[in-house]
Amino acid sequence: MAAKRGTDEMRDRVVLGEFGVHNVHTTDFPGNYPGYEDAWDRRRFEEAFRVDIIREEEGALEFDMVGIDAAIANAFRRILLAEVPTMAVEKVFVYNNTSIVQDEILAHRLGLIPIRADPRLFEYRNQGDEEGTEIDTLQFQLKIKCSRNPQAAKESSDPNELYFNHKVYSKHMTWVPLGNQTDLFPDADFRPVHDDILIALLRPGQEIDVLMHCVKGIGKDHAKFSPVATASYRLLPDITLLQPIEDEAAEMLQKCFSPGVIEIQNIKGKKVARVANARLDTFSREVFRHEGLKNLVRLARVRNHYICSNHS
After folding, report:
1. Contact (Cβ atoms closer than 8 angstroms) between residue 34 and residue 4
2. How far apart are CA 166 and CA 150, in angstroms?
3. CA-to-CA distance for 297 and 176, rounded, in angstroms?
4. Domain DNA-directed RNA polymerase RpoA/D/Rpb3-type, which positions (predicted)?
5. CA distance 99 to 255
């Protein structure tokens, strides 16, 4: 029985020790363990694999993928970074730019502004096509001029009081329908994802007048098309207390982990430590610095449980 437990741990857990990490490599391939059926089976895979949405909010998504290998988890990460299409500024037509930002730098900054538009509504633009159409192009205009505020106090030195439109934000980009896009998208709200992205600073008399063409693309072609800023994954932490830890030792153990991982309960007048939420831990391995604690805790990660975090 002990040998089976050791084998199961080797197959299912990556163990963190004081001076190294054990069971790093995947070993559950066919024929490696007598008595284990490790040949790939679609039905068994479908039963074991699942995706759990943990947190979904504006600009962030966290989900778990359970029952897969690192290669598959990394494939999903790379697909999110490089293969999911979005709309982004591809061409910038500069009609007037008297700001201190050079035309090329301005075009580059505009290209990196994320656009809120469903790419499934558009086709990829054919290579070599210079003119956009309503089915493959979104058009935005940025036209703004800085002027003095005649009502500003004479002693004021605050640009926010002295000038109008001295800060050019992404909110100043307006959608200009191409062709019959007004009929194609009657309820559309095409605009930058964030309204407060600073594009340039102006002073009285300076202005920017540009027209932008957004096209459909993928991150493999250019990073501006990537729908996520970061896409990462980590293995689910697994923390096991090998024996009861009480009183001062319990309080010291709680300080060794991230907030919320260890909680202290009052049981029959004694402070007793228990693992509340191992998921929150970052595995600093601080516990191994304490002689009285390092042999009372086992730190591991679940080999086939991936916590995936994506931020846009």
Report:
1. no
2. 14
3. 62
4. 60-312
5. 53
Residues near 162 by beta carbon (within 8 Å), at least 6 away in sequence:
148, 149, 152, 156
CA pair distance 35, 39, nearest whole angstrom = 12
Contact criterion met (CB below 8 Å) for 85 and 218: yes
Cα end-to-end span (Å), the chain: 48
- The pTM of this model reads 0.81
Q: What tokens appear for 43 in the block?
A: 């039905």
Residue 228 DSSP one-character state? -
CA atoms of 23 and 279, how far apart (whole Å): 20
Q: Which residue has the tokens 């009502």?
A: 151
| Residue closest to 293 by CA, chosen among 259, 261, 248 | 248
Half-sphere exposure of 132 (CA within 13 A, CB side): 27
Residue with tokens 């605009």: 191
The 3-state DSSP class for residue 74 equals: helix
How far apart CA 301 and CA 57 sit, in angstroms, is 26
Residue written as tokens 């988890």? 73
The model's pLDDT over 228-285, given as tens digits with 9 standing for 90+, comes to 988 999 999 999 999 998 889 999 999 999 999 999 998 888 899 999 999 999 888 8
Average pLDDT over residues 58-75: 91
Nearest to 236 by CA among 277, 274, 289: 277
Q: pLDDT at residue 31 above 80?
A: no
